[in-house]
Amino acid sequence: MLNNWFEWKKRTSFTSDSRGRKKIMGFRVHHLLGAAAIAMLASLNHNAVASAQDQKVLTFATDPTYPPFEFEKDGKLVGFDMDLIDAVGKAAGFEPKIESVPFDGIIPALKAGSYDGAIAAMVATEERAKSIAFSVPYFKTGAVILVKADDTTINGIDDLKGKRIAVELGSAFAELAAKVPDSTVSTFSGSNAPLIELQNGNVDAVIGDEIASDHAAKSGAAKGIKMLPGLISNDFYAIGFPQGSKNIELVNSGLKKVIESGEYSALYKKWFNREAPKF
Hints:
Order of helices and strands: HHEEEEHEHEEEEHEHEHEEEHH
Mean pLDDT: 85
Distance between the termini: 86 Å
Largest sheet: 6 strands, mixed
Domain Solute-binding protein family 3/N-terminal: 57-275
Keywords: Signal
Low-confidence stretches: 1-53
Oligomer: single chain
Number of strands: 14
Helix content: 40-55%
Shape: globular
Strand content: 15-25%
Protein name: Basic amino acid ABC transporter substrate-binding protein
Number of domains: 2
CATH superfamily of the largest domain: Periplasmic binding protein-like II
Radius of gyration: 31 Å
Structural class: alpha/beta
Subcellular location: Cell envelope
GO molecular function, one term: ligand-gated monoatomic ion channel activity
């Protein structure tokens, strides 16, 4: 049997019949090329899986009680900030993981290094910059005054002197209200609580974010309340980080790409139904 097989191999490999030789050689080359292609595809697939597995995961804190920036809907965290950090992550090559934290606990958590960052409609102030670091600004906003719809005595910040003012706990608006002479400032957890206090007549005014207040009015959460025209401050939201974080440059690069690509403007239009301002 061995001799017969050897004789067959000898004839088919070295026969003068060129057509037969080409068939045998073509069969071998075809299979070799097929094997090489399979190996290449396997290598590419392995590299893709490895790349996905090796993608950097950054954990961000947020307070999902602040629509339309961050809030819960159908068991999921949604809002402008949530869409933005997803887009930034894709642009910069990291995967954002979001965890819920009460707003007044976010800065202490960043100082303790419990999170890589925080995206929570946070105003970048000089006071906060003493304890945490910030990304480049990603949102232009400002503070407004809200009063009862039938109130004619308060028309501006000067009229808040000696009044009862409600603000969200830990917000930059609390710092602003504290500067009003002879006022009594009450702080509440969440953005809706100050509005409820105003509706119930427990305070005379609320100081809050212009965009969030406009959303509350349109959604019915601020029933019986009016927002006074004009901003009493000009502010910028930024993403917070622990001091010395090496992730700031990465996130800034992603923000730049999202803004320059036009995706930022699309998200702004989606959530606020207005054109994104230049800043």
